[in-house]
């Protein structure tokens, strides 16, 4: 049994390392894409900002010598990170990672979930960044209004939420994963394949790609991606990318997802029993309202 567990960990290690490399490449490619959208290189080698966009990504040195672009990145990073934390703790994607990690190899589940969340974050940032062709003053106040609406809605949901809301969400996700497992088992039986994950049958030599992308990896990716699509955290990421530094939003959101998913994989059931989804929802509403109120103190032209 110990050899089997050790073998599962070793086979899942390439999956996790590959996902980390893919996430780094996605973030790097996103940054390069944004830079290319803002900067054009002319034949004399000089760099000129594209005039069709309202504000540059690169740092701006103010009169007192401070670097404004760095502050914009930090502000976007903190905003994105905090929004993801309050949106994802106790969310459906959190429970998906937690339950699957209790049934299958943790590294495989973590790799599949993180690839889905990282891809979704970069996609959401691109959606939000596409709105920057609109004058910043409009997107700034529209995003502020959306943050206020989200905040009020989360506060209402939190105040009306029952104390057992987290347990109900957990049971719903368990039923969904059980249904997917049954479909996977029927597919294996139809193809005459042994259930390797459950320990049945003999382990046959597999190709490198088959070890890298196992059925559990695909299941974790698919369930997480579908659960995240249209979720509150995705919409919040799009809104943030429309008003903040997009690279900071992408990095903060990805790290926030890494933290939440890592906690879910390591001790999701225990954490779900300790935290109150109602409390987290109320705190999330307060955070969203705080970002909306920040528009009263930060001007759209500041770029922060």
TrEMBL record:
- Please give the Pfam families that the UniProt record associates with this protein: GDT1
- What terms describe the molecular function in GO for this protein? calcium ion transmembrane transporter activity; manganese ion transmembrane transporter activity
Could you tell me the Gene Ontology terms of the biological process aspect for this record? Answer: Golgi calcium ion homeostasis; Golgi calcium ion transport
Task: Give TM regions.
Answer: 67-86, 107-131, 137-155, 209-227, 247-267, 279-298
Q: Cellular location of this protein?
A: Membrane
Q: Does the keyword Metal-binding apply?
A: no
Tell me which GO cellular component terms the UniProt record holds: Golgi apparatus; membrane
Keywords for this protein: Membrane, Transmembrane, Transmembrane helix
What is the protein's major site of localization? Answer: membrane
Q: How does it sit in the membrane?
A: Multi-pass membrane protein
- What PANTHER family does the record point to? TRANSMEMBRANE PROTEIN 165 (PTHR12608:SF1), TRANSMEMBRANE PROTEIN HTP-1 RELATED (PTHR12608)
Q: Which family does it belong to?
A: Belongs to the GDT1 family.
Put simply, this protein is called GDT1 family protein
- Native organism is Poecilia mexicana
